[in-house]
Design goal:
single chain; Rossmann fold; 5-stranded parallel β-sheet; 14% strand; globular; disordered C terminus; binds adenosine-5'-diphosphate; binds the ligand Nc1ccn([C@@H]2O[C@H](COP(=O)(O)O)[C@@H](O)[C@H]2O)c(=O)n1
Length: 255
């Protein structure tokens, strides 16, 4: 727990690649810290910062488009869990800077300190895959988006990153689609809220933001024992949300 006894609220935003996770996080950030709002300190973190270090052989495979970056084995879940545990207790943490325009090895050379924030938005394809990771989130969102739209967006972003159309489509067929269906989509059932239309779904974002603010207010007031109780009840986040909502039925919308 940080010196001021304040805990960071973790919001997990999962969904397929190019479903709109980053865009949803940006919308929430705007709403939480925009003009006329009670200012909350907010930051965003990508699961792509937690790819594990590759062996030389795997690096060669990655360069040839033959390493599966969409499989759970590609991630360092231990590091992600310990980082988020520290972040939610308001401790300073250092994370690899993921830059899609760089090779993974080059990007992993760069680090940044996460700012101490009230709310940390975390986005990633497999955030809810392991129970120990998904149980860390106060709110779990799943961005729903049909596969054609995701593929069309992914083609645009991959071409902009200098990949060829053929390699993008092959990679999608070989890795992205099977991993989405095998590992990402089955985690939708763990979400507190499934968000169709991503960032365009302003109604859902606006409904959620006051609730996030309540979490921030509660975390500010929370005593260590209260936080420990909340930690023990984690994994039942939806129940926790509804219990808190019942205790405070009149959640006011910000002006
Ligand atoms: N609702 C939308 N309508 C149009 N374009 C969108 C929408 N949501 C996302 N995009 C675009 O699709 C691309 C991928 O979105 P992004 O939010 O980065 O997805 P993710 O973080 O899930 O990979 C980005 O270029 C983004 O601007
Ligand atoms: N070197 C890499 C590493 C990962 N990817 C792809 O990123 C996707 C996950 O990130 P999103 O922001 O799209 O959720 C995942 O589908 C990987 O295939 C990559 O292209 N290159």
């Amino acid at each position: 727990m940080s010196a001021n006894n304040k805990r960071t609220i973790l919001i997990g935003v999962a969904g397929g690649s190019s479903s709109g996770k980053t865009s949803v996080c940006e919308r929430i950030m705007q709403q939480l810290s925009g003009p006329g709002q009670l200012s909350s300190r907010v930051d965003m973190l990508s699961m792509s910062s937690f790819y594990r270090r590759l062996t030389d052989e795997e690096r060669k495979a990655a360069q040839a488009g033959l390493f599966n970056f969409d499989h759970p084995d590609a991630f360092d879940f231990d590091l992600m869990v310990s980082t988020l545990q520290d972040a939610r207790m308001g401790k300073p943490v250092r994370v690899a800077e993921y830059d899609p325009s760089l090779s993974l090895a080059a990007a992993q050379q760069r680090h940044r300190e996460l700012a101490l924030v009230d709310v940390l938005l975390v986005k990633g394809i497999l955030l809810f895959y392991q129970p120990r990771l998904r149980d860390l989130f106060d709110v779990k969102l799943f961005v729903d988006c049909d596969s054609d739209t995701r593929l069309a967006r992914r083609v645009r972003t991959d071409l902009a990153r200098g990949r060829s159309l053929v390699s993008t489509l092959n990679y999608h067929t070989e890795f992205v689609k099977p991993a989405f269906e095998g590992f990402c989509l089955p985690t939708k059932k763990y979400a507190d809220l499934v968000l169709p239309r991503g960032p365009e779904n302003l109604v859902a974002v606006e409904l959620m933001v006051p609730r996030i603010r309540d979490f921030v207010a509660e975390a500010t007031q929370a005593s260590p024992s209260k936080v420990a109780r909340r930690d023990r009840s984690n994994g039942k986040t939806a129940r926790h949300l509804s219990e808190s909502a019942a205790a405070q039925p009149q959640v006011s919308r910000p002006h």
